[in-house]
Design brief:
The complex is a heterodimer of chains A (384) and B (79). Chain A is α+β, with helices and mostly antiparallel strands. Chain A has eleven helices and 18 strands. Chain A has two domains: 218 residues, Phosphatase 2c, domain 1, CATH 3.60.40; 160 residues, no CATH class. In chain A, a hairpin with a 3-residue loop joins strand 4 and strand 5. Chain A is elongated, with a radius of gyration of 24 Å. Chain B is an alpha+beta fold. Classes of the chains: A alpha+beta (384), B alpha+beta (79). The structure holds FE2/S2 (inorganic) cluster (FES).
């Protein structure tokens, strides 16, 4: 069975702060995934800069595939240290997991990871040592197919401190909450993270006393999606593409009004246009039996491209109901994506002097595909 | 009384030319008038895209429609 490693995180800034002092970097390579979490001392912009710096240095070194000791010494030497207090300005946790599911996790001044296995949370086995005056916890382990692993910043462990709980949630308390949420909903990691964030917020009575972050990871089955956009050059290909789309495994998407009309005609199904539009810059979506999402073409695809350009791996996007947000969500949730792209010039667009950056369908789709490839999705494009 | 049908084209060209403002205009209509109209959307009305936004009201096509024009068209016909 085809499986894929997936990771999601959410960071919440301390109450009344604009930015979060925690930072997450996730790098997807062909044969491995690198996950880095750093928590900057204090909060606000200064903490944010420190944690960003720390996590970027770490992820950069990890990407270079040097021996772990060397990486660690370099990171520790490079970590900014507070002159007055003599402590590192930022904590660090990083994990590298390869395609054999072998993982290595290193933690410096950060809460121990939570491993969910066989229905309960366990602590990993660590090797502890001192390097450059720092206590290092290191664990090498094999990630099982049904495992889930969570990394948190200490803002999670301290949730409730001084308010609902005198000593905060603690590691065990956090483990309990994670178990509870997973046992309730085991299938959607994104929702597990969102739910946990809500719970931690509740412990803080919605006014977090510290920045906090939680990252979740697991393996899941690959998801497929086929998207058709644009009428083909040859009219006789209409029915071929429609068949291909309908027979494909996984989610089916049509992007384009004219394209949707062809599909409706070929399949003899009703095309229901909707009246709702959620975001003025994105035309409303339509509906057809058997198709998971039907959007307008050019404007929507351009919007998706915009959003992809600023997307950070692992980020949970805010739920929105407009066509572009829905399409982006489906693309991000899929691992194997096939684009069926028709290249016929859309008569209706000819009349418009479209601004150059709105561009041609084929170009926009190629750009979208490039971004998705960077997220290590398997992409296939067929031109018609 | 049967409702009059207002069809607004939301094809890409028409949308770019301002169809969303027409939908918004409809949504904000006072209910006295709104109740007499049924809104539908379509993807392309008779391929007159270069003259968008295109609408069809009470079986008649209108081109280059702005919210002001739409208001006049609707009011004249729903008197
Ligand atoms: S897109 Fe509106 S008439 Fe063609």
């Amino acid at each position: 069975m085809d499986i894929v490693f997936e990771e999601f995180y959410q960071s919440v800034p301390k109450y009344s702060q604009e930015v979060c002092g925690d930072n997450v970097e996730i790098i997807k390579k062909n044969d491995k995934t690198i996950i880095v979490l750093s928590d900057g001392l204090g909060s606000g912009i200064k903490a944010n800069i420190l944690s960003t710096l720390t996590s970027k240095i770490a992820s950069g070194l990890l990407e270079k595939e040097l021996p772990l000791k060397e990486i660690l010494s370099t990171i520790l030497a490079a970590l900014p240290v507070c002159e007055v207090r003599g402590i590192a300005y930022a904590t660090l946790a990083f994990m590298v997991i390869d395609h054999n599911k072998d993982a290595k996790l290193v933690e410096i001044d950060t809460p121990a990871a939570f491993l969910y296995r066989n229905g309960k949370i366990e602590k990993l086995n660590y090797k502890e040592y001192v390097l450059e005056g720092k206590n290092i916890r290191e664990s090498s382990f094999h990630f099982h197919k049904n495992d889930k692993l969570f990394l948190v910043s200490d803002g999670v462990i301290h949730a409730g401190l001084g308010g609902l709980l005198s000593f905060g949630l603690g590691w065990d308390g956090t483990a309990e909450q994670i178990t509870r949420v997973i046992n309730y909903n085991d299938f959607d990691l994104k929702e597990i993270i969102e739910k946990l964030v809500k719970i931690f917020m509740a412990f803080y009575e919605d006014k977090p006393g510290d920045d906090f972050t939680i990252i979740g990871m697991r393996y899941r089955e690959k998801r497929k999606l086929t998207l058709w956009s644009g009428p083909p050059l040859k009219k006789q290909d209409d029915s071929r593409i429609v068949k291909k789309l309908i027979k494909s495994d996984g989610k089916k998407v049509i992007s384009g009004g004219t394209t949707a009309h062809i599909a409706a005609r070929e399949l003899d199904r009703e095309l229901k246009t909707s009246l709702k539009y959620e975001d003025k810059s994105v035309p409303p979506i339509s509906e057809m039996e058997g198709i998971d999402l039907l959007t307008e073409g050019l404007l929507t695809l351009n919007k998706v491209l915009d959003k992809l350009e600023t997307y950070k791996p692992g980020q949970i996007i805010i739920k929105k109901e407009d066509g572009a947000s829905k399409l982006l969500k489906l693309l991000l949730e899929s691992d194997k994506i096939t684009f069926l792209v028709g290249r016929a010039v859309n008569e209706s667009h000819q009349s418009l002097n479209l601004p150059l950056e709105l561009g041609i369908r084929s170009q926009i789709i190629s750009l979208i595909a490039t971004h998705l490839k960077k997220l290590k999705k398997e992409i296939y494009i067929e031109w018609y | 009384m049967t409702k009059k049908i207002l069809e607004i084209c939301i094809g890409t060209p028409c949308y770019l030319m301002g169809a969303s403002e027409l939908i918004e205009y409809y949504n904000n209509l006072e209910s006295r008038i709104k109740d007499k109209i049924e809104l539908r959307t379509s993807h392309c009305l008779e391929d007159k895209c270069e003259k968008g936004p295109v609408i069809k009201f009470d079986d008649k096509l209108y081109f280059d429609v702005t919210p002001e024009r739409l208001s006049k068209i609707i009011r004249k016909k729903t008197q």
